[in-house]
Amino acid sequence: MNKALLMFCFAILIIPIGVFAANSDMQMQEIKSEFQVIDADKNGFITPNEMQAYQEKNFNELDKDKNGVIDRNELTVDKSRELNKADQNNDRKITKAESASQFKQYFDQLDANKDGKVSEDEYTDYWKLRWKF
Ligand SMILES: [Ca+2]
Ligand SMILES: [Ca+2]
Ligand SMILES: [Ca+2]
Question: What is the pTM of this model?
């Protein structure tokens, strides 16, 4: 499993069918370990602040030349299709604002009971549904 690729996929909310292990137990492990990464204070919930920190970290890792924008040079060929979905104004770049707004949407989708935080169950249910296992 390529960790950088995994981070990228989560960052732009694309479901990379086939990239992840075929075995659903392993998929669940990947999902849970990602939850733990985002839940920085390990209290069992992802808060908006934790999600924002996670988004910024991802963005900075992808923005290799640190110009505040992720462009095609910073992505491999197989990621360019995914780039299009994160790119709201279709200028073939992902700005911090585009990334932040997508993560906000992501958070709202994850927070199924709308209590302002994402539990591990909410997180795993979301990805189970996406991956259909
Ligand atoms: Ca937390
Ligand atoms: Ca853009
Ligand atoms: Ca919730």
Answer: 0.74
